[in-house]
Each structure stands twice: as C-alpha cells, then as structure tokens.
Amino acid sequence: MRxxxxxxxERLAALIMEGLTAEGFTLDHFGTxxxxxxxxxxxxxxxxxxxxxxxxxxGVDFIRNLRRRAATPVLxxxxxxxxxxxxxxxxxxxxxxxxxxxxxxxxxxxxxxxxRRPGACxxxxxxxxxxxxxSAGREVRVAGKPIRLSPRERxxxxxxxxxxxxxxxxxxxxxxxxxxxxxxxxxxxxxxxxRLRRSLSSAQADVIVHTAHGIGYMLTGKQAADHV
Length: 228
Description:
By secondary structure, this protein is an alpha/beta fold. Helix content is 39%, strand content 25%. The protein has eight helices and 14 strands. The chain has helices spanning 10-22, 33-42, 59-67, 83-91, 104-115, 151-162, 170-177, 188-202, and strands at 2-6, 26-30, 47-50, 53-54, 57-58, 74-78, 96-99, 125-128, 131-134, 139-142, 145-147, 168-169, 207-212, 216-221. The strands form four sheets. Strands 2-1-3-6-7 form a five-stranded parallel β-sheet, with helices on both faces. The longest helix is centred in the last third of the chain and has 15 residues, at 188-202.
C-alpha cells in the first residue's frame, strides 16, 4: 500500500518512514501542503497521513479541498489535542485523528484499520485456485499453508489478484510498489515479478503470472491458462 506523508518535522517524518516501511508500506514524504497536493493529484494513494500545522497552510483546508475530488482516507497526525480541534479535523473530512506524541505501533495499527474499511485496500481475503491472500493480516497461503513472501512480493501479488484475469499495466504496478524517491531501475519490476513467480512455483500455487509484453502482467489460475 502506498501512503502520502505530509509532515514538516524532518526527524519525525524519518521515524514514521522507517517504522511504516518496516510494516510493508510504501511512503512518499512531503514537507509542504503544496507539494503534497501536487502528489495527491498525480498518484492514486491508498492513504494520506497529514500534519495539520504545515508551514504553507492549514491541513484542514487541504482536507476540505481533497474531499471535493477524492475519497482517499486521511489520518491526521497533529499536536492539536483540544476537543474542538479534533471535531474540526473530523468534520472537515478526516477519517481518523491521532495526537502527537504517539507510538509507531499505534500509527501502523490505525493505518491498517483505515485500510480495512469497506472499499479500502485491506479487509478481504482474495482467492484464486489454491492461492489465498489475507489482505488484512498480509498472509499468503497455498492450499491452506502459509508461504513467505517479501513485502514487495506481497504487494505485487495483491495488485495482480485484485485484477485476476486482467492485464495490470506496468505503470500502475510501479506506481503502487515504489516511492517517488526510490531508485527504480528499468528492470526492477521485471525482477520483482520473476521473484514472485519463483516463490509461487516453489509453493506449488496453481496460478500463472503472464507477461503482456510492453503492457503489463496478468494473474490467472492454471486451469484458465489455456484460454489466455
């Protein structure tokens, strides 16, 4: 899952980036609302973490403007701890409100909770042939047995399973898997797909990752492969 982090405190932002990356999230960090807004208009983020007291404006206005065009979940992270502040933040369109200082474990849990809501990224078990993906617990099973995948392999598999039987464009996969600052080599996605194929094959998953040359990738069950 890809998260936009709008936070002007560089030290706190670094801690959040480190903690949530370890939890398997991909993050893009911006220190101003203007940069965050530009990014939110060009990238389909799964979640936005927003500090209200940004140097170039109030995060409440950012949320109100965002809500005119998108339903992306917003988790406010702020030092404003008054009841009126919380009410204003939530009434402006925020989905949750977390007061600083906070533990990274709670932040991660709140991120997962928001992403489990109906219509969000988490909260369902995806199934294809003998392969299952628990999107809440981030667990992959083949014939009921858990298999070990890297965070990037899990994210890639999830994107393919959500569009099983359809080609997912390379650009869409790269956008979901890599942050804006990540050094992405021309064959990074191909290498990730290759690793995922090996992992699924070793676990005897009855699925195939097809390559649509120059376009993207598609996941099908082996029984459907003859019709692809």
